Amino acid sequence: MSKDPSADPAAHEVNHEPSRRSFLILSGAVAAATAGGIGRATPASAAPGGGVGNFSSYPFSLGVASGDPLPDSVILWTRLAPQPLAIGSGMPDRKFPIHWQVANDEAFTQIVTEGETFALPEDNHSVHVDVRGLRPDRWYFYRFRCGSELSPVGRTRTLPAPGASVSAFTICHMSCQRWEIGYFTAYRYMAQDGIDLGLHLGDYIYEYAFTDTPRAGAAVPDAVLDTCNSLDQYRLRYSLYKTDPDLQAAHAAFPWAVVRDDHEVVNDYAGGVDHGAKQLARRAAGYKAWWENIPTRCAPPVGPDQTIYRRFAVGNLAQFDMLDSRQYRTSDNDPVVSKLGNEQEAWLLNGITSYDTTWNLVAVGQQLGGVATESPTRDRIYRAYHDRDVSPVILVGDLHWTLVSDALLAIPDPTSPIVGTQFIGTSITSTGDGPGDQATKDGWLKHPWVKYADGYRGYLRTLITPTGLYSTQRDIQFVTRPDAPVWDAQKFYIDAGKAGVQLA
Hints:
By secondary structure, this protein is of the alpha+beta class. The protein is about 20% helix and about 25% strand. It is built from ten helices and 23 strands. The longest helix has 18 residues, at about 275-295. The chain is globular and about 70 Å long. The model is unreliable at about 1-35 and about 40-55 (pLDDT under 50).
């Protein structure tokens, strides 16, 4: 699929032919773990005759995840963390062998492939397994074992083969999950929502010191409450977020493709020019912790630099371009220098028709220009799509509002041609309960190209078909308390033969 699948991060991986019998012999906790179902496992210590071995407690406390699927491959992720909220996560300073399995069925009676890798202390005992040789357009189950301990079971899938006919594919996109502001209830519904691929568009963590009371007075160690500056502090923040059961459930239910915005490093950072060497060191720490905790096939960062923009396609249905809207920016947003950096912008524009697909979707952490203001970067990009007669669907995070609008060739000129559609998604928790300020909402809607504004928390679920794109805004009633209900606030439709969005 992607022309550059990136360097294999699982350099220590050893693949071998399936051997289900040997796996069962080595793991005395298989029956207990598989009985737990998707995203759940019983620690071996709770099984008759089981024991925690060398671990102080259950090592797979942060769950499992998968990401960046291709037609024959998917990345599987987990991290050993028996004490997730302690520096070092309670792990000895040595490598640990981890066995992994992929199966056709949840009970793991039909093993497809398996292998062994190592969880290394320099990577905070995380693993990224690039599983190859899978069949296109298939769902699979996966799990890990370390010693006598079995991980929860995850579910993942491969993409359809290039050019293959695809009748439907369902995505969701989400962003901005500030842990201390509220509960990640939206992820519980995503896990049940028939999603093929989740797109996380940034602010997976927030680097701020905690000033708000943690959820319902939850006990959080002091070290986790501080502003993130060092690698250990970023690692602890990811650990806290990833202990959330609803986030774990969504990661275990379907594969993700993830890009960053700003809070993975520091609020509103632009490239590395803001604060010199100190800022670059902080960026290096933030990028390293992000890579350790995300199921991505992007190569590990080299200091403060990491390429995360990438491209893939879903058969003949949709091309996806995942962008980095922070790393390459200049501090003053020079009108000549792209917000994406000139190299990334050129990569995007040169690859608009890389795949012969009905739809072209662009996913980015922050919009490329204000909703009602001019932007040289956005104008160049929209002009390139317009000139190639391609109508993009732009998926964006960051704003903490849902804003759905026509993408005009020359904003703010309401008479300029409609190039495509932009969906800015609301947050998972950031800014707290909806519905948002009415005056702010009215301000958005006074612009004729803005078709919808919504200040509740939630996510956008989108069904892509050859004839139309059907998107639904799913709102969470509240996030400051657990167990909120969800409802479909608004449905949207885009005709495959016509640029612009309609409210259904």
